[in-house]
Amino acid sequence: MDGHVAKPFAPEALREAVESWRPRNASTQIARLAAIFGTAGIAHLLDGFRDLLENQLGLDDGAARYAGAHRLAGIAGTLGFPDLSRLWLAVSEGDDTAYAEARINARKALVEIDANPISAERSRGPGTSR
Questions:
Q1: 62, exposed or middle or buried, with CB in 10 Å at 0-12, 13-18, 19+?
Q2: Rounded Cα distance, 127 and 14, in Å
Q3: Domain-embedded: residue 46
Q4: Is residue 4 part of a domain?
Q5: Residue 130: inside a domain
Q6: Which of 8, 10, 62, 122 registers the highest number of CB atoms within 10 A of its CB?
Q7: Contacts of 94 (CB under 8 A, 6+ apart)
Q8: How far is CA 97 from CA 27, 48, 62, 94, 105, in A?
Q9: Does the pLDDT value for residue 40 go beyond 60?
Q10: Band of pLDDT at residue 20, cut at 50, 70 and 90
């Protein structure tokens, strides 16, 4: 659990609690990349990045979590997730204090990827499960 809103709550408190989960900046960078490399190629890259994020979130073993952190940081930066990139780079360099925030940002990136029209377009294609 990354947070909660205690009952009874005011509408403002609920809006504030969910605001950080709204899709943000990466959509602009993803659209730019799609214009350069084509929508299908970027949709495929987003799909692979989504899988990488999910796999990384499934790792609890200390050594295993560091193994993919540098790769994840590089791809996140390329796709327009600068905070995610910075945090996973810190994790890859052994900064254990960045790990919890990196995981939270990874979950936020999954929300943004799922909300992105390029990713959504691919997920509606034949033979896909999302």
A1: exposed
A2: 37
A3: yes
A4: no
A5: no
A6: 122
A7: 66
A8: 28, 27, 13, 9, 14
A9: yes
A10: low
Answer with the residue of higher pLDDT: 73 or 65: 73
Q: For residue 102, how many C-alpha atoms fall within 13 Å in the half-sphere facing its CB? A: 28
Q: Whole-angstrom Cα distance, residue 88 to residue 73?
A: 5
* Strand runs labelled E in the chain: none
Q: Phi and psi for 95 in degrees, rounded to 5?
A: -85, 95
Q: Which amino acid is at 31?
A: A
Cβ(80)–Cβ(105) below 8 Å: no
In a domain, 47, yes or no: yes
Q: Quick one: DSSP state of residue 98?
A: G
Tell me the per-residue pLDDT of 70-120, one tens digit each, with 9 for 90 and over.
999 999 998 889 999 999 999 999 898 998 899 999 999 998 898 888 875
What's the full length of the chain, in residues? 130
Query: Token pair 């299908």 is at which residue?
Result: 40
Looking at the structure of the chain, the number of domains it has is 1
